[in-house]
């Protein structure tokens, strides 16, 4: 899954929208590679203390070493957080709260794509728990620290897969392994079938969480914590590698030959993390669909649909508990 395209937009985003991040604490999920790794590296260059939330693994240890080599003056701290286990997410939040009183930016970046119809130990679909439910849990647990910041940001990562049908409550229930199966080879080669529908549900849910949270914060008259949304377009990352290994796609497809680099794929979440002009609900993504400069996008109707936001919020709270403001 080689990509010959050069990085085109990262430097411009940092120059046009970057701010000094000294004395700011940033937590990012999924930093062993791809967009999360790039985001961690660039925010550390800006002076932030970056908390790296990953499963304990050799990959996580190697990524920490690579980040330290890339940014020798950088401030990185590894936090064990397995998004496929609610208990691990709770322990990660406890570990962060024990070290820090304030969190300035939370980047809910990690995700899995088009995996088999398997359940986590908690009983939920592996995609839904990793991409949605655990991020909702992490956000609600860290919210007291975010409130302590003068200007906090919650950055959620969606994708082009947000486009499709509405949310369905079943996907938020403990029905892992019973949500459509794995689909045919033809389905998967054409980015169709039950694997991809489960992925679509998660990426739409990430967006619905952003706008549902915006409404809840406004109702609570909390204006110094702003939820933001980004999507990477099509970028070459380990996300595609994992999906291809699991049989969910052809990693060497013609579509993937059009992918931009992980650096350019990360520019949406980077801009959301640092742009001083950002406002609650701003949505950053490539202006040319699959690729391009990460500019402000108008959210599609599905993203702000009240029924979708309600399904997402109720489903998440049913799984991990009420979100207290």
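-> sequence recovered:
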């Amino acid at each position: 899954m080689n990509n010959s395209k050069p990085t085109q937009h990262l430097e411009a985003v940092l120059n046009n929208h970057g701010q000094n991040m000294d004395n700011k604490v940033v937590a990012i999920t999924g930093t062993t590679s791809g967009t999360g790794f790039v985001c961690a590296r660039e925010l550390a260059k800006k002076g932030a203390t970056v908390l790296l939330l990953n499963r304990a693994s050799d990959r996580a240890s190697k990524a920490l070493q690579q980040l330290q080599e890339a940014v020798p003056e950088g401030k990185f701290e590894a936090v064990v957080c397995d998004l496929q286990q609610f208990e691990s997410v709770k322990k990660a939040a406890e570990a962060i709260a024990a070290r820090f009183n304030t969190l300035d930016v939370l980047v809910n970046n990690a995700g899995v794509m088009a995996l088999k119809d398997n359940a986590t130990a908690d009983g939920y679909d592996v995609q839904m728990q990793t991409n949605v439910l655990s991020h909702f849990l992490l956000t609600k647990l860290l919210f007291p620290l975010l409130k302590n910041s003068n200007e906090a940001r919650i950055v959620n990562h969606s994708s082009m897969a947000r486009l499709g049908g509405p949310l369905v409550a079943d996907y938020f229930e403990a029905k892992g392994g019973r949500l459509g199966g794995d689909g045919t080879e033809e389905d998967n080669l054409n980015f169709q079938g039950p694997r991809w529908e489960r992925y679509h549900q998660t990426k739409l849910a990430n967006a619905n969480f952003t706008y549902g949270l915006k409404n809840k914060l406004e109702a609570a008259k909390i204006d110094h914590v702003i939820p933001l949304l980004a999507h990477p377009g099509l970028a070459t990352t380990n996300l595609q590698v994992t999906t291809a290994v699991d049989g969910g796609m052809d990693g060497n497809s013609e579509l993937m030959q059009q992918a931009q680099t992980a650096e350019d794929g990360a520019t949406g979440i980077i801009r959301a993390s640092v742009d001083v002009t950002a406002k609650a609900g701003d949505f950053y993504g490539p202006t040319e669909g699959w690729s391009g400069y990460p500019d402000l996008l108008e959210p599609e109707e599905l993203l702000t649909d009240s029924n979708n936001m309600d399904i997402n919020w109720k489903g998440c709270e049913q799984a991990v508990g009420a979100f207290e403001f």
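The chain has one domain: 10-320.
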